[in-house]
């Protein structure tokens, strides 16, 4: 059986035959087909099951509004659930599976739901499954979850690439039907930068589906000619397969281009889809209209389709859903389908028109004033029952029924900035309202202009107006200009199981129940019944639901409410929004200049913000990280170690007011810092909480170098610029971040000076007298290389930090290692750095956690009250200065074999262990090779007065309780003799 | 009318003729004892507890649109009590306990599903912080579990364990956390409050307060003046706007938070996952949609919609964490107005105006707080003293320095 | 969103970091008698208007200017963009 439903003509390439598989059966198709048209051509009407009742589902539409014809496309890790067959461009080797059925599409076990549909009424689940309470998670919910959902993911990583791009234009035209093409011709010929985007792979919109003429050409030929002219214009960019998904602020539109979905396999390094951000001066929505259904009993069977879709399949794809077709309509457009299909040789069973004055035909029977009252056919339509005007009933044998309830303008994008559409009585439809996104206009059917001539004209006029073009509009081809008035007909009287939302199984009965139970606003209706919440977002169902609600409420439709739409216009793969930002590319990776040197040394790296830092440097034979870290600490404290601290934020502060500026920024005083000296600085937020700490060295009267913690580099810089520009705009001070400009290394340990003396050029005296603790200065090293030297210490040892221009960082590190061989120098990583700073009792990120004050940190007296500094006033608030405020303390296990756990809480030795008796917490912990004990830092209520006290450290989440002693935070060299050596 | 499985069957067999409206549609009376402004989750919960627990008989909820139309109708449905600070944890644990009994309390199946939540850990510092938090939870009587990477992997093998920029090093799990069908919370509370005599008045907008001699006598509304002994304001993102009518400036900014749902999928995610190295958290609804979100757009907004950069940021987080969702499609995005307070924690307190009470500043944590927020606000309105679990949620904490700053980012609302 | 930078022309908002109400420029006098109260109000209380809002944005991925942007919080329409430094001077700030 091959393509039994294929007709003559159409815009498919019969010379190219493509093979595809659906539910493991092989079929053939032609280039230019969609999966839906190919399935119909092969006589496959049933391709899925509905969400709730698992009713058989076939194709309803020929476009992206499709609620029913959704499949799992492709296989393996490229499986795409819920893919609309109606927009899936055919390619050779396509594989698709039906979904939401088990064990097979034809025999689906959960089809039993349909028999019990009366029990599964709208919102039934809110009223039951409550007893016993524990059964919800164990029984009811798993049952519901298994039955729900549609397609399934492969659960494997998406193997395809996605990309993002930016485009700019004078005019973005959304949709390439008659209004869009005419707008593009008008704007393109005038020389404007134009982007014309359409979701379809063939440009031309509805013109490709119609048999009428434009001037001397068929509609599709005219479209092809227009496209040819546009593609020759250098200022016009055509973007087929591109859905404009949303209208965002200030003329920015999101668009998704499907660059690879129509290909059997992606070419190497090509993206599957591209997310475009299109920056527009103006945009014109030419998105056309969507045909709306009529609700009648059992209107959901495979074979029952929109009449316009039947016409599209016949004219564009040369396919009929059945050899015998009936039409049910309330407007003239349904007759157009009948005429076109008749001309293609399809047998028209009859046109059922609800109007008494419907036009008649010589070619087929028209049943005026008649209505379809029921349908039959388990897996596909076999016949429909019609109530005739005279009250009698008639049966029409047919395998397909085309339904037309009129057309709704596609106003979606006009609502994306919360604009509400307006009711148009003549069309009985919503048209774009007055609150359009700034810069957006609407033309053609999307604006309620339903004739082809009207669409062409409004496209030309809107484009000319948006671009403020002078002169005459282009000549328009002669086209049909039939007046369109739509008399609403929403549902056949008395129908109950008449589907509105075919995917989510919402029927007329459900809407009435929703009203009966008080869910009467449109939003309540949607949420209670799930109307319009399916993958098609109610493109074919919202209006019907609203109309039924209006009817039962006895109100007009606009009184009842409006339907508005949110982005995206059609669903977008999450991978497309992510683009290349995944895996290792999720965030940029910052490497320090000596990264590759560290890598050569076998360093283990750790993520610190976006930086990678060496965590430790294992030596051969070391099997546990602690061995490496302990060695690095011991050797640094015994001789000398070098640590890469390039990642610290560095900010150059220059200007005659530089000192005054730092005085404002830091809680402690900086005005009197001598040139050549460095000072520890504590920065507060305006709310009085510690923000960051670091050092500032004064290299000249008007030049300071500020360092910040790695984590806060960007925040501190932003804050300093805020103070400079917004609070003290007249200060003569300039800031520049030099974090990336300087590679910086800590050289620490008793032999630090000796090592540095080997590389610092001899004219610079770095002896203890010539360059004492906290000195700083510009120097040169290695025979003339400019460098900055700071005698500061985080480790508690005699230490320096030396900075050289970033490009010399690698060389300097290698030189330090070579020159340091005689001292058995070690490189040390962030772990050893952390151990040594805990041993020394220096606060770091774990202590500066955004809730601690200078007082908590033991630096309360540093906050100068003699000057105006950020945060000083609010740091005086009462609760921040209570006598039992937290103080930073050291913590040591009573039994040195026990471990201190960071994140543990401190409790008194006696008494209950609960939140009410919490005394404090441990912020940092490490094994100290210097003390041969686990140690920690933490905050303890009134801690300053509790040194020597024994307490319990509890960590129930790690199942630990340890007896500890509260000690000074300065475990090593509390008098600070080493740093001054 | 009492809802039950039996009732559903009976109605099914008799054509569903017997279902009555879930709540009445009354006209406002001239005077109430207590008027609650805001028919969202918090306002309706307040009314429910006022009537049911505190025995208040003359209570009205007034709502400018339709009930449940604010943040309770547009959130990511997560419930949890995994807080660090003493001012918060007992309150959220109280809330979680109320969730556990909610359906029986209101006779409405809001699908409280304790499927567990895991906050992922990607660094040692994060593990230290989560250890402290887990301990604080347990010390406050909640449940917490610290997982290593292998334990996370066992539960969620398809997370990115192979090629992650920020590898997963563990997680803090709260098994009693989970999700709730958000709309049903509003409806359940509304139906219960209504059945206890509360008047729920929709499409009634407050246009002003009648304040005489420092005392609030009632509210001016689009349906006329409504007198009240006490007025409680629970309007979330509109707090600034409404309290402004009473002449108050608040420690609150209104921001937009976007959230997203995918197309329906067969079950893949058993619980709630929060990425610790990017802005992304996700769960799967009973209907099958992946419900996910991330960070605020970052600027003050009442527009209830956001922009592309944050959509991309959230999806980047999603793909970085679970690259198997690449081919799942984002179906719908929306934005809610978040009342972002200056320390990231809420306010349930009296105001300087006698008889006027305020409940707000929930940031984007309001949904999980709904039951306790309602309970504690009802307590305050009925007894004129704070509920024991909500004593820290005072206005004056900013003046005195008793901020409750879980994130430690200070007085910049968009960072909380 | 697009911010029309007074020096650089239109720039995407994602290049900027947002701080909040431009009243943060009006930092109180630390020596005033009511300094504690004034700083509390300055740091914590906001008008949070529906409609026009003057707010601070930092061109972090650009020229590092702080800008005062006048933007409607309901429509997001931007009606004015100024250098914060100019605004600060106009409001009497100096050193």
Automatic annotation (TrEMBL), chain A:
EC number, as in UniProt: 2.1.2.10
Keyword match Methyltransferase: yes
Methyltransferase keyword on record: yes
Span of domain GCVT N-terminal: 595-867
Domain Aminomethyltransferase C-terminal: 887-973
GO biological process: methylation; tetrahydrofolate metabolic process
One Pfam family named in its UniProt record: Fer2_4
Keywords, sorted A to Z: Methyltransferase, Oxidoreductase, Transferase
Gene Ontology MF terms in the entry: aminomethyltransferase activity; methyltransferase activity; sarcosine oxidase activity
Domain SoxA A3: residue ranges: 496-579
InterPro entries: 2Fe-2S-bd_N, FAD/NAD-bd_sf, GcvT/YgfZ/DmdA, GcvT/YgfZ_C, GcvT_C, GCVT_N, Sarcosine_oxidase_asu, SoxA_A3
Family: Belongs to the GcvT family.
PANTHER family assigned to the protein according to its UniProt record, in alphabetical order: AMINOMETHYLTRANSFERASE, AMINOMETHYLTRANSFERASE, MITOCHONDRIAL
Protein name: Aminomethyltransferase
Organism whose genome encodes this protein: Ruegeria meonggei
From TrEMBL, chain B:
Location(s), subcellular: Cytoplasm
A matching Pfam family: DAO
GO biological process: tetrahydrofolate metabolic process
Cofactor(s) listed in the protein's UniProt record: FAD; FMN
Rhodanese domain segment(s): 34-78
MF (Gene Ontology): nucleotide binding; sarcosine oxidase activity
Keyword Transmembrane helix: no
Residue ranges crossing the lipid bilayer per the database entry: none
Taxonomy, superkingdom: Bacteria
Keyword Cytoplasm attributed: yes
GO CC entries: cytoplasm
Catalytic activity: sarcosine + O2 + H2O = formaldehyde + glycine + H2O2; sarcosine + (6S)-5,6,7,8-tetrahydrofolate + O2 = (6R)-5,10-methylene-5,6,7,8-tetrahydrofolate + glycine + H2O2
This enzyme's EC code(s): 1.5.3.24
Keywords carried by this UniProt record: Cytoplasm, FAD, Flavoprotein, FMN, Nucleotide-binding, Oxidoreductase
PROSITE patterns: RHODANESE_3 (PS50206)
Family per similarity comment: Belongs to the SoxB family.
Protein name: Sarcosine oxidase subunit beta
Lineage of the organism: Bacteria, Pseudomonadati, Pseudomonadota, Alphaproteobacteria, Rhodobacterales
Gene name per UniProt: soxB_2
TrEMBL record, chain C:
InterPro entries: SoxD, SoxD_sf
Gene Ontology MF term list: sarcosine oxidase activity
GO biological process: tetrahydrofolate metabolic process
Name recorded for this polypeptide: Sarcosine oxidase, delta subunit family
């Amino acid at each position: 059986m091959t393509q039994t439903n294929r007709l003559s003509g159409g815009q498919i390439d019969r010379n190219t035959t493509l093979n595809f598989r659906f539910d493991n059966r092989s079929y053939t198709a032609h280039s230019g087909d969609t999966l839906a048209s190919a399935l119909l051509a092969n006589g496959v009407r049933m391709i899925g099951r509905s969400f709730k009742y698992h009713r058989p589902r076939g194709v309803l539409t020929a476009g992206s509004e499709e609620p029913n014809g959704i499949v799992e496309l492709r296989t393996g890790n490229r499986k795409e659930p819920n893919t609309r067959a109606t927009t899936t461009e055919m390619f050779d080797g396509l594989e698709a599976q039906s979904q939401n059925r088990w064990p097979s599409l034809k025999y689906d076990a959960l089809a039993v739901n349909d028999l019990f549909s009366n029990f599964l009424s709208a919102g039934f689940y809110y009223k039951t499954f409550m007893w016993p309470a524990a059964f919800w998670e164990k029984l009811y919910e798993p049952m519901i979850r298994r039955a729900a959902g549609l397609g399934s993911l492969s659960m494997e990583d998406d193997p395809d690439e996605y990309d993002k791009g930016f485009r700019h234009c004078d005019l973005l035209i959304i949709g390439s039907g008659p209004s869009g093409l005419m707008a593009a011709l008008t704007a393109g010929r005038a020389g404007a930068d134009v982007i014309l985007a359409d979701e379809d792979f063939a440009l031309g919109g509805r013109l490709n589906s119609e048999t009428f003429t434009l001037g001397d050409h068929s509609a599709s030929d005219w479209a092809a000619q227009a496209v040819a002219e546009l593609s020759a214009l250098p200022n016009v960019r055509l973007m087929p397969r591109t859905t404009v998904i949303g209208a965002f602020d200030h003329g920015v539109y999101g668009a998704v281009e499907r660059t690879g979905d129509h290909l059997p396999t992606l070419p190497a390094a090509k993206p599957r889809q591209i997310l475009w951000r299109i920056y527009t001066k103006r945009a014109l929505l030419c998105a056309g209209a969507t045909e709306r259904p009529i609700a009648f009993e059992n209107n959901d069977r495979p074979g029952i389709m929109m009449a316009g879709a039947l016409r599209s399949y016949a004219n564009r794809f040369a396919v009929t859903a059945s050899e015998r077709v009936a039409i049910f309509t309330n407007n003239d457009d349904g007759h157009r389908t009948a005429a076109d299909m008749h001309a293609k040789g399809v047998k028209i069973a009859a046109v059922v028109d609800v109007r008494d004055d419907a036009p008649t035909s010589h070619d087929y029977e028209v049943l005026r004033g008649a209505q379809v009252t029921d349908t039959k056919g388990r897996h596909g339509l076999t016949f429909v029952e019609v109530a005739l005007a005279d009250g009698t009933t008639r049966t029409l044998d047919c395998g397909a029924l085309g339904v037309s309830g009129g057309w709704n303008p596609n106003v979606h994008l006009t609502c994306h900035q919360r604009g509400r559409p307006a009711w148009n009585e003549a069309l009985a439809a919503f048209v774009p309202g007055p609150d359009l996104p700034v810069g957006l206009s609407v033309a053609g059917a999307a604006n309620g202009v339903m004739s082809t001539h009207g669409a062409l004209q409004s496209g030309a006029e809107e484009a000319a107006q948006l671009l403020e073009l002078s002169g005459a509009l282009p000549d328009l081809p002669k086209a049909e200009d039939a007046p369109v008035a739509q008399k609403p007909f929403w549902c056949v009287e008395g129908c109950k199981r008449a589907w509105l939302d075919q995917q989510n199984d919402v029927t007329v009965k459900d809407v009435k129940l929703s009203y009966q139970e008080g869910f009467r606003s449109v939003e309540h209706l949607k949420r209670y019944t799930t109307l319009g919440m399916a993958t098609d977002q109610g493109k074919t169902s919202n209006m019907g639901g609203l109309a039924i609600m209006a009817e039962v409420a006895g109100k007009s439709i606009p009184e009842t409410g409006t339907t508005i739409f949110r982005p995206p216009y059609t669903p977008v793969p999450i991978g497309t929004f992510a683009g290349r930002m995944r895996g290792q590319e999720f965030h940029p990776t910052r490497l320090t200049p000596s990264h590759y040197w560290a890598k050569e040394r076998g360093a283990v790296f750790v993520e610190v913000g976006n930086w990678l830092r060496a965590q430790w440097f294992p030596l051969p034979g070391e099997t546990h990280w602690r061995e490496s870290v302990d060695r690095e600490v011991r050797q640094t404290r015994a001789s000398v170690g070098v640590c890469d601290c390039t990642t610290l934020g560095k900010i150059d502060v220059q200007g005659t007011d530089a000192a005054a500026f730092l005085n404002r920024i830091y809680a402690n005083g900086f005005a009197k810092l001598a040139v050549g000296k460095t000072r520890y600085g504590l920065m507060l937020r305006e709310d009085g909480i510690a923000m960051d700490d670091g050092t500032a060295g004064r290299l000249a009267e008007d030049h300071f170098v500020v360092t910040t913690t790695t984590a806060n580099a960007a925040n501190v810089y932003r804050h300093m610029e805020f103070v400079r520009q917004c609070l003290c705009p007249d200060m003569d001070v300039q800031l520049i971040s030099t974090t990336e400009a300087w590679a910086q290394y800590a050289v620490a340990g008793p032999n630090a000076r000796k090592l540095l003396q080997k590389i610092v050029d001899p004219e610079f005296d770095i002896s203890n007298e010539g360059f004492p603790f906290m000195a700083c200065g510009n120097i040169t090293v290695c025979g003339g290389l400019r460098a900055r030297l700071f005698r500061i210490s985080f480790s508690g040892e005699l230490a320096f930090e030396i900075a050289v221009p970033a490009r010399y960082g690698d060389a300097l590190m290698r030189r330090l290692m070579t020159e340091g061989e005689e001292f058995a120098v070690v490189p040390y990583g962030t772990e050893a750095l952390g151990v040594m700073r805990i041993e020394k009792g220096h606060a770091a990120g774990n202590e500066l956690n955004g809730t601690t004050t200078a007082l908590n940190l033991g630096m309360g007296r540093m906050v100068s009250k003699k000057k105006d500094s950020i945060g000083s006033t609010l740091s005086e608030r009462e609760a921040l200065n209570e006598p039992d405020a937290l103080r930073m303390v050291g913590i040591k296990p009573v039994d040195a074999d026990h471990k201190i756990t960071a994140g543990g809480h401190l409790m008194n030795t006696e008494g209950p262990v609960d939140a009410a008796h919490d005394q404090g917490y441990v912020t940092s912990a490490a094994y100290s090779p210097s003390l041969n004990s686990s140690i920690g830092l933490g905050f303890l209520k009134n801690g300053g007065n509790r040194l020597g006290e024994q307490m319990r450290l509890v960590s129930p989440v790690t199942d630990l309780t340890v007896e500890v002693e509260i000690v000074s935070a300065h475990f090593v060299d509390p008098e600070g003799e080493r740093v001054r050596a | 009318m009492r809802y039950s499985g039996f009732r559903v069957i009976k109605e099914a067999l008799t054509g569903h003729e017997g279902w009555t409206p879930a709540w009445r549609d009354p006209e406002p009376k001239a005077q109430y004892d207590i008027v609650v402004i805001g028919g969202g989750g918090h306002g309706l919960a307040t009314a429910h507890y006022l009537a049911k627990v505190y025995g208040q008989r003359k209570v009205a909820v007034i709502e400018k649109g339709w009930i449940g139309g604010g943040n309770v109708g547009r959130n990511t449905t997560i419930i949890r009590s995994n807080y660090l600070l003493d001012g918060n944890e007992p309150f959220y644990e109280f809330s979680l306990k109320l969730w556990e009994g909610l359906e029986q309390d209101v006779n409405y199946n809001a699908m409280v599903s304790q499927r567990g939540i895991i906050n992922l850990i990607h660094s040692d510092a994060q593990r230290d912080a989560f250890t402290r938090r887990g301990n604080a939870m347990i010390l406050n009587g909640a449940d917490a579990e610290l997982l290593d990477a292998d334990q996370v992997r066992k539960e969620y093998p398809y997370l990115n364990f192979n090629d992650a920029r920020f590898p997963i090093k563990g997680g803090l799990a709260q098994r009693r956390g989970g999700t709730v069908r958000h709309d049903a919370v509003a409806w359940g509370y509304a139906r219960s409050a209504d059945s206890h005599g509360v008047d729920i008045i929709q499409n009634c907008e407050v246009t002003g307060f009648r304040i005489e001699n420092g005392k609030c006598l009632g509210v001016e509304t689009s349906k006329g003046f409504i007198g009240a002994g006490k007025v409680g304001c629970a309007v979330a993102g509109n707090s600034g706007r409404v309290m402004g009518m009473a002449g108050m400036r608040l420690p609150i900014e209104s921001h937009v938070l976007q959230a997203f749902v995918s197309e329906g999928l067969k079950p893949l995610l058993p619980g709630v996952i929060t990425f610790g190295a990017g802005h992304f958290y996700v769960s799967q609804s009973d209907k099958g949609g992946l419900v996910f979100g991330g960070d605020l757009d970052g600027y003050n907004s009442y527009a209830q919609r956001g922009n592309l950069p944050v959509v991309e940021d959230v999806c980047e987080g999603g793909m970085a964490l679970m690259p198997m969702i690449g081919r799942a499609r984002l179906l719908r995005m929306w934005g809610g107005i978040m009342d972002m307070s200056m320390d990231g924690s809420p306010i349930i307190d009296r105001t300087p105006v006698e008889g006027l009470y305020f409940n707000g500043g929930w940031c984007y944590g309001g949904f999980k707080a709904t039951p306790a927020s309602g309970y504690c606000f009802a307590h305050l309105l009925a007894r004129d003293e704070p509920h024991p679990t909500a004593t820290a949620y005072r206005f004056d904490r900013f003046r005195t320095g008793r901020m409750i700053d879980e994130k430690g980012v200070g007085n910049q609302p968009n960072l909380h | 969103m697009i911010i029309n930078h007074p020096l650089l022309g239109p720039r995407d908002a994602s290049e900027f970091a947002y701080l909040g109400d431009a009243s943060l420029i009006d930092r109180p006098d630390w020596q005033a008698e009511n300094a504690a109260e004034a700083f509390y109000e300055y740091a914590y209380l906001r008008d949070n208007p529906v409609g026009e809002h003057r707010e601070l944005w930092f061109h972090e991925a650009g020229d590092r200017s702080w800008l005062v942007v006048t933007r409607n919080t309901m429509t997001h329409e931007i009606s004015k963009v100024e250098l914060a430094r100019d605004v600060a001077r106009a409001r009497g700030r100096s050193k």
